[in-house]
Design a protein that fits this description.
alpha/beta, Rossmann fold, seven-stranded parallel β-sheet, 6 helices, 7 strands, 30% helix, globular, disordered C terminus
């Protein structure tokens, strides 16, 4: 039987609540029910779900690039209530774009030994893409449900999907398509 793990990246108040510091907009909110459905399917099937969340220090160097956001311990760094992690989910804090930098995610994945890592969340062109690249560097097979990732810029979103498929070998699918690979432009 295939062993899978679901990553839910940065589905946080600061990105998905209109009052958040880096609100991604209504388009990004459309992925919430899709991710909820995936979380439920993985959980019901006894498959691991790992929530990655930005958890920055107040003086993080990333704030030279972006306004302060997702400061560890604050409301903005909390997973949105619609996706509140269950008792069998793991939460891994991250401080960089890649979910594999300076935290315990690589160790968790080494314990789980998944055949596939499913990647969902925001932003497609930053944390989703950089985490996918890090997973490829560690020889993990990756699946990106295109209806479960979002970006603030549709051009960046499409570029990131193409790059993940062509450079990292990610399988692009739709969450509602039962994991069936879908064609993309180019």
């Amino acid at each position: 039987m295939m062993r899978r793990v679901l990553l839910v990246i940065d589905m946080l108040n600061d990105f998905l609540d209109p009052a958040g510091a880096l609100y991604c907009g209504e388009e990004a909110r459309k992925i919430i029910p899709v991710i909820r459905s995936l979380v439920d399917r993985f959980t019901t099937g006894g498959e691991p779900v790992i929530f990655l969340r930005d958890a920055h220090a107040k003086n993080d160097k990333e704030f030279k690039l972006f306004p302060p956001h997702a400061i560890k311990g604050n409301w903005g760094s909390e997973v949105i209530s619609a996706l509140a992690p269950g008792p069998h989910s793991s939460i891994v804090d991250k401080t960089r774009f890649s979910g594999l930098f300076g935290n315990r995610l690589a160790d968790l994945l080494a314990e789980i030994k998944p055949d596939e890592v499913w990647i969902t969340g925001v932003l497609t062109s930053i944390s989703v893409m950089d985490t996918t690249g890090g997973l490829r560097d560690r020889d993990f097979e990756t699946v990106v449900p295109v209806d479960a990732v979002a970006d603030i810029d549709p051009v960046w979103h499409e570029f990131a999907l193409e790059r993940m498929k062509k450079v990292y070998g990610a399988k692009l699918t739709k969450a509602g398509a039962g994991g069936q690979e879908i064609p993309t432009a180019g």
